Write the structure tokens for this entry.
Amino acid sequence: PVIRLVYPQGKKPADSSEAVEPSFLVQCPGASDEGDMPYLAVMDSNDAKQRIIWRSNPPLLENALNILESDEETGLPKRLLLKRESPEENPNLFIAELPESLLENGEPKITQALTAFPHPALELKDVKRTIVTYEREDGVKLNASLFVPAGYDAARDGPLKMFMWAYPREFKSATFAGQMRDSPLRFNRLARTPLYWLTRGYAILDGPLMPVIGEGDTEPNDTYVEQLVSSAKAAVDYVVKEGIAKRDEIAIGGHSYGAFMTVTLLAQAPELFSCGIARSGAYNRTLTPFGFQAEERTLWEAAEVYQKMSPYLAADKIKAPLLLIHGEADNNPGT
């Protein structure tokens, strides 16, 4: 996004009639095939060319949260509030001074640490996280975060029991669906994912992409089940091929729409997973007749889609153990 107008060459003098073209100060996530690398840049207002003035510096993942001080003449930042983290280091806040020659890519200097939050789960400090990539049968590129216990080596230790935790999303472009959306340098936090199973010797495949794509006039959900099964199969095939997991020792789980996905996969592709955990989901789409997620058609406009997508109507096909979890005070009307 654009943060503000800046004048890299300085604002015009008060007695000058010559117009000075401003530039834009922009903040970008810095998405790449290697993961996010956030940066600040000055973007020319005429040709949109960018000149990076600050970028996250590996092996840390840094984000500029605020500009604390700017140059009065140019408007360019002089001091930043940064959040810095790594897979082993909890996010903390720092003040950084930027060099005077910003447009020459000088190195920022950390001048003060504002917080010193310790690691909240030392048992997970040394686990290994890798962003892995693979392809679906139709050529759509997919990725996921693979977590393995500290010191694990697939060649030496052999395959592990695995837990996959996912959430499907709709897209109108296959290219956009497969883009990298994270950083391997992000802190390994528990959050909503089941990373605590690492302490029991499991491998975790967190966030394997489950895109449901409908390009052009095609609606994504017209082939929801087929695409969901194809994405899940690609993830299973990858971890089995790499020797990380056995085909009959992989569990699937998810929250909300991810729970809906879990029950769908156990019903429609029982050969892929040994069991599932579904937390706070809705499993009968006919009970949400006016749309759900990105589905804008009503039940009466797409009755066949609603019925095919409802794992409740295919519950008799579920043979694997399934743990259903739901909060008593859930106030989400969709679940």
